[in-house]
């Protein structure tokens, strides 16, 4: 009898607990489909057969649907593969997905704390403040004085850039990426720091190289990101990251920031972005020295994105000579061979701008994963705090559902019948929502004038085999060579 009573009590307790659980459980909660993980490695084995994880995500979406779960090592992840779901994550519920992956590599690149970075930090009031300081300088409006300043800096650097290009061997394979990156770096440094450096400055070129190495690094994935117990095997790699970052920081402090500290007039308007950061440091008790130094480093490092985008555009141009010809026709028509291109020529050169958009579409640069900062949902599916969310931009950019002949390089897809540049809503190469790339206008501006000027002055052909990694907007630091043949149309 005692045993029977105890069993009845246990059944009653279980029944009431189950009922309470059902009452607490949201009606919308439903299990997310996805592959069963293996012990220890999760589903990492499913990604190994593809050149980029996003190719695997696209294949898996055909099996499990537009949202599916996947375990990476021991990290619970969710992949979303259509535009409506991506908007839900980035816009409608952007506050719920404000975190970033806690990869050791990211910590190594930013002084031991990835929250020093704007792009790789978790969202916070501090990060919102840092973005607001940068917005005026990094998102210049077309009619603003800042846009005029961007144009002046860019066109002035073109003269130096072309002089440096003329020092390279002509009509034979040559490595032009270092020169392009140096021009981009000087454009950023002149605009943000009111300084620039000679291309034969050894320390400057070393820092430009390290920035490029880091840009490539951030665009890669490693097993240690999801299997941290592998860290001892990656010590050498991690030390290399710390070395690159340390050398960059030392250069910026010694060759840029110190001069601003010595000459800054706190009672006058800021001369540039560096001044604005130093003034804010003085005025805001919540802002620390590391916050402004790493923010400046973050934005100066944006030049690598431009240099790599230009190289990717050139990779397509040399594959499709008809594309190069149309750009040359536009630039010749606008400049009449009397000057270099400037930013106010963009409206008259829609095809050139479309080439850059098509380059970004084909590159399908992955959006940095987000992490749920609270328990939430996506389309009714429960998402636990700490879940990593991958946004499959690769599917958006290369799916036949969204694009006609998606595998072809067709810049005209971004032109209206009237010849104006148009971009569909689902095309989000710089992400969207509150964490959209704040420097995207600078990327568009400087890449436009560099690509235009190169093709204004040279016929360009491949000088080596060209390989571009799918789902990646970076090319390897030591990448393909190109052959420059002067067009003999240099402006007077």
Automatic annotation (TrEMBL):
Keywords: Endoplasmic reticulum, Heme, Iron, Membrane, Metal-binding, Microsome, Monooxygenase, Oxidoreductase, Signal. Residues 1-23 form the signal peptide. One of its GO terms (molecular function) is monooxygenase activity. The gene is LOC115876751. Belongs to the cytochrome P450 family. InterPro entries: Cyt_P450 (IPR001128), Cyt_P450_CS (IPR017972), Cyt_P450_E_grp-I (IPR002401), Cyt_P450_sf (IPR036396). It comes from Sitophilus oryzae. It is a peripheral membrane protein. It is found in: Endoplasmic reticulum membrane; Microsome membrane. One of its GO terms (cellular component) is endoplasmic reticulum membrane. This is Cytochrome P450 307a1-like.
């Amino acid at each position: 009898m005692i045993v029977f009573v105890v069993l009845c009590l246990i059944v009653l307790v279980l029944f009431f607990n189950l009922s309470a659980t059902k009452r607490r459980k949201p009606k919308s909660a439903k299990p997310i489909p996805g592959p069963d993980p293996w012990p220890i490695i999760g589903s990492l084995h499913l990604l190994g057969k593809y050149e980029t994880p996003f190719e695997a995500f696209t294949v898996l979406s055909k099996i499990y649907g537009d949202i599916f779960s996947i375990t990476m090592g021991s990290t619970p992840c969710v992949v979303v593969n259509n535009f409506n779901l991506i908007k839900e994550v980035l816009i409608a519920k952007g506050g719920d997905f404000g975190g970033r992956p806690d990869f050791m590599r990211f910590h190594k690149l930013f002084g031991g704390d990835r929250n020093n970075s704007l792009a790789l930090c978790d969202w916070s009031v501090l990060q919102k403040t840092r973005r607001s300081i940068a917005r005026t300088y990094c998102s210049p409006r077309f009619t603003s004085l800042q846009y005029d300043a961007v144009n002046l800096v860019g066109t002035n650097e073109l003269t130096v850039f072309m002089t440096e290009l003329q020092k390279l061997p002509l009509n034979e394979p040559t490595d032009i990426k270092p020169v392009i990156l140096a021009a981009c770096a000087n454009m950023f440094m002149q605009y943000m720091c009111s300084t620039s450096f000679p291309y034969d400055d050894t320390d400057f070129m070393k820092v430009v190289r390290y920035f490029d190495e880091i840009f490539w690094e951030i665009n890669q994935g490693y097993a240690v990101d999801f299997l941290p117990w592998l860290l001892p095997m990656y010590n050498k790699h991690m030390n290399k990251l710390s070395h690159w970052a340390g050398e960059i920081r030392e250069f910026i402090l010694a060759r840029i920031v110190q001069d601003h500290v010595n000459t800054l007039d706190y009672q006058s308007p800021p001369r540039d972005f560096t001044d604005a950061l130093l003034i804010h440091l003085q005025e805001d008790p919540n802002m620390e020295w590391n916050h402004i130094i790493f923010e400046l480093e973050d934005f100066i490092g944006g030049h690598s994105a431009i240099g790599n985008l230009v190289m990717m555009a050139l990779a397509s141009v040399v594959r499709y000579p008809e594309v190069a010809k149309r750009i040359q026709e536009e630039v010749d028509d606008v400049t009449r061979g009397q000057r270099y291109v400037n930013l106010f020529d963009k409206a008259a050169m829609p095809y050139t701008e479309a080439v850059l958009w098509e380059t970004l579409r084909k590159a399908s640069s992955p959006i940095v994963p987000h992490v749920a900062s609270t328990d939430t949902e996506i389309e009714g599916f429960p998402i636990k705090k700490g879940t990593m969310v991958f946004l499959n931009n690769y599917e958006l950019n290369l799916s036949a559902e969204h694009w006609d002949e998606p595998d072809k390089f067709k810049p005209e897809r971004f032109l209206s019948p009237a010849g104006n540049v148009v971009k569909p809503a689902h095309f989000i190469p710089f992400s969207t929502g509150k964490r959209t790339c704040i420097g995207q206008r600078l990327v568009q501006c400087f890449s436009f004038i560099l690509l235009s000027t190169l093709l204004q002055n040279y016929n360009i052909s491949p000088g080596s085999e060209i390989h571009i990694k799918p789902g990646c907007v970076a090319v390897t630091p030591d990448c393909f060579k190109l052959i420059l043949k002067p067009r003999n149309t240099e402006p007077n």
